[in-house]
């Protein structure tokens, strides 16, 4: 995977002027919030976003609320007695409804009734995160704190309960990260008396983002298992190929074909899982950042959210990163094996070419010797015809010279042969 600039990254958080102006809602405790995040099952990053907008508009029309701008990725509006915050992310959309007051029975699910059931059924995707938040106030300076510890402990499962001071001890946050019978994760925020509305909204927002991006990052865990199983099989196959490299040289071409096929399968798997692993890494960093921004401090000896994440969440992320690294390492090893085998095949081909060139050189030597023999015979043949022609040409002059014809031919033979040999040698020298 190659790194992209932030502006072009597929997981870039969509910002606009409205979101910069009002990043967090202003909340007044006591209040409650219901939150859902909806994601399409596959190819969510390239989904038809108009379906998300239509689903939002259907909710707004039930309450006669104003519609968002055509290109808006964030919308905040009063919805009856509640306040709605809608955000469009790269792979999902989130809805948060804030309402004043709290239930008599903690987390009885009435806050989620603010989302109409029929509207939820028509959602263009699946719910990947569903959260209930209960917000109250208490005076941290008086004697309410021991009782607060006991009350919060009653609302959650003690085995995974986390409870901590956050944001310079402005609030206490408690959760067990368990999904209740209604399918919701529950958070309790007890704010110190006098905490600002904006700070309370900031705490709630960070908790919601941490929970949502944690669930989104866990989508990479099944992919990591699939990659791990496939990597185990391909590593065994690659080990067998390495054994062939060290033992059997007679089937190098077939082994190279097998190795190239294995490399193709590895690259196909890497390309299919690159986006999910990239998204998992980006989401996990967001989760880590949001938890750090809470600036946790221990409350009454309870475990921190960061400690819970270290024990339960980080191992899953390490599994994902390990699967990705193993796949990359397997690709590198396969490429190295292909280079080694290709080098050996090239060396063998070079040896064969050397032998072929040696035989060609031998044949060329034989051809040269044969050519020299033929050239010698050609001198004799050319000389014979030249002497014959000169004999016929000078035959009338022979009596004047006092010679017989055969004597004239004998006298011409040696000079003609020497002349033909010299001319042939000169022609060969010019050709060379």
- Radius of gyration (CA) equals 44 Å
Helix tally equals: 9
Low-pLDDT segments, ≥5 res: 1-23
Overall shape: rod-shaped
Total domain count: 2
Structural write-up:
By secondary structure, the chain is α+β, with helices and mostly antiparallel strands. The chain has 2 domains: 13-197, no CATH class; 221-295 and 304-355, Up-down Bundle (Methane Monooxygenase Hydroxylase, Chain G, domain 1). Helix content is 57%, strand content 16%. The chain has helices at residues 17-21, 49-63, 117-121, 144-155, 197-217, 220-247, 252-294, 305-394, 405-431, and strands spanning 31-39, 74-79, 82-88, 92-100, 126-138, 162-166, 171-179, 185-192, 297-298. The chain has a 9-stranded mixed β-sheet with strand order 2-3-4-1-5-8-7-6-9, sandwiched between helices. Helix 5 packs antiparallel against helix 7, helix 6 (220-247) runs antiparallel to helix 7 and helix 8 (305-394) packs antiparallel against helix 9 (405-431). It is rod-shaped and about 155 Å long.
